Amino acid sequence: MSGTSDDCRNMEDQTEQQQSLVNGNSVAISVNDAKLSNGQAKESPMAIKISNAYKHYTCGQKRTPVLLGLDMEVKKGQIYGLLGPSGCGKTTVLKCIVGKLTVETGSVRVFGEPPGSPGSGVPGPRVGYMPQELAIFLEFNIEETLTYFRRIFGMTRQQYEDRLAFLMKFLDLPSKTRSLINMSGGQQRRASLAIALLHEPELLILDEPTVGVDPLLRSAIWNHLTEMTDCFGKHCTIVITTHYIEEARQANRVGMMRFGKLLAEDSPEALLCRFSKPNLEDVFLDLCLQDGDLETAKVREERTQRRPILKFSKKKSEAKPKPTDLEDGEGCQVVLTNGQGSRPKEKVSATNSAASARSTSSTVAKYIGQKKPNLTSQRVTACMIKTFNRMKKRVGLLVYQFILPALQVSLFCLAIGQDPKELPVAIVNLENQGQPCAGHPTQCPFDMTFVGPEVNEHLQNLSCRYLSFMDASIARPVYYESYEVAHEAVKNGDAWGVISMGHNFSRNLYDRIFESVANEDLTTVNLEKFNASQIQVRMDITNQHIAFTLQLKFAEAFQLFMEQLVSSLKMSFRRADNSYTLQGMALGYSAMIIILERNEGLLDRTWIAGVTPGEFALAHFLVSLVVNFLQVVVTLTFMILVFQVPNEGSLWLVFLLTMLQGVAGTTIGLIISAVCKTQQDATQIALGIFYPNLILSGIIWPVESMPLALR
Ligand SMILES: Nc1ncnc2c1ncn2[C@@H]1O[C@H](COP(=O)(O)OP(=O)(O)OP(=O)(O)O)[C@@H](O)[C@H]1O
Q: How far is the CA of 303 from the centre of ligand 1 (A)?
């Protein structure tokens, strides 16, 4: 440990102006900012100002307080190190700054405006954000990743090429075409940092950027950050959180945070001086002791209750926490460590500092002061290209997108809508003593004149002729000698129904037809003969679909039989038309897309880069439209060309209707994606929607049979 009282006195001269108290009304000025001009301290404009911020998270019934009257000030051109133990609320503060979260009481101002306000540029190109999680497209390579953000930020190709070359060298990244998934954890974090640095924003928000980075590179990163704030009229402001408290010695100003408030905020030197400690960790420990070390969760809870979070009082004096008294720094000693974590002025030699300076001078100025430009189409295009690229990378998804619909249609056409096969049907033909009809003629002679059954063998055994029109591949006849036995077989499940015809079926049917032709009035037909000429059908309707199919087949056979018979009698007969409607529902693929991006942290990054929810949704909608178009083409091609499903109307209307179904599916998918946090939730909701849709759509049962309200 070494130090001199002269050093400390110099420091005190500067820190007199700093007043680094959390709730101090005096203006805080960092060491680097305390430049004298005409003998007067020139105050840098404020980049970030957080006043009396309160916030809590709600998880079910549980409210977790996170910010408890936080005050924080960051001036333009500063590197601000936000330090504190895990869970104290650092990330929450950063998210409030970039506009991802809002505070419940108090205010947050970035460049003088609330984040998210129109024209503030935050979220947008004025800010570069590196979240704690990786938040990168792992299936992309570095170039593809940075190109996505280049499009969002509207950088020219030349600017991008220069910056890419610099970042590759500076961050020691491997080949720009290597997939991120094949990189080490440290390389992935550096790629994530490259995204935040790409457009050289005015405000850089870095949430633990040096985790998993080796000391040499960590030092180079700090060096670069320092250059960014030093070289351009102090326009670039950096807020950085880190677990390595000592590396924050290189910041212009540090805020020490605990339990949702700042215990102290000042330059590292001033803090070391005031507390007479050799390092910032010891300073933090001292501050914790002052704040009430070993403060248990219970004590904290009590403190929270004393000062309710949802207090809308504007009286700052009531809400602010007790300031840490740093005023007693008189006579303190500046304690210098052995060069580790020295101030920016004593830079650690950066491996690529020259490259850094070159690059920054060539490109930074182009972005400084740039407000959120009106680049809607550019950002939508960026999101669309990114989504197409992601699809291209995921072969499985591509298969899902285009091959699955074709497979589904094929399965649908093969498995659904076909007639059931080989259904046993009990036949009781008493006219033929219950025996099969082998040997009986089934054809009427051409141009036969009706002369009566006695003299025309072709009109005998009409029961057999009727049975000959039955499609045996669907209704397989099983002959029984009595109705009772046949009925028993149906009851036992050996047959799906009974067709029975009486002893004199042909004669009675002939008489019935003859008499109706002669009298032109069916009501005059003898009732006994009428009954004896009927074909009796009794069905097992436990499976309604099979029962309906068989009834239809029996009716079709009867229609054909009568058509032939009546035409042989030179009578007219009108045949009814059949129609078959196939209805399908397209499933939108989009239900998972937003969830995946959100869970990977990519969505936040995209928001903070300035893409609005509307632009993001539009991009996904347009991509879905293209996907739908191809799906519909594949589906209709299979249905119409391969499976020959008849289309009686306009093909364009069929195409349009199918597209509209796809659009409906996509829209539902986007809504599900927006409201669900996990893929499991989305799957459950999608399934939950599917069944009511299926049941109410009329596919299974006609809508006409439903209660009016359901229709
Ligand atoms: N979405 C959330 N819902 C409920 N609680 C949350 C949520 N996000 C954070 N928290 C809680 O809020 C507190 C502060 O979290 P935050 O991430 O801001 O801490 P941190 O200081 O950044 O921690 P670390 O250094 O470990 O990243 C923690 O107790 C955390 O569990």
A: 19
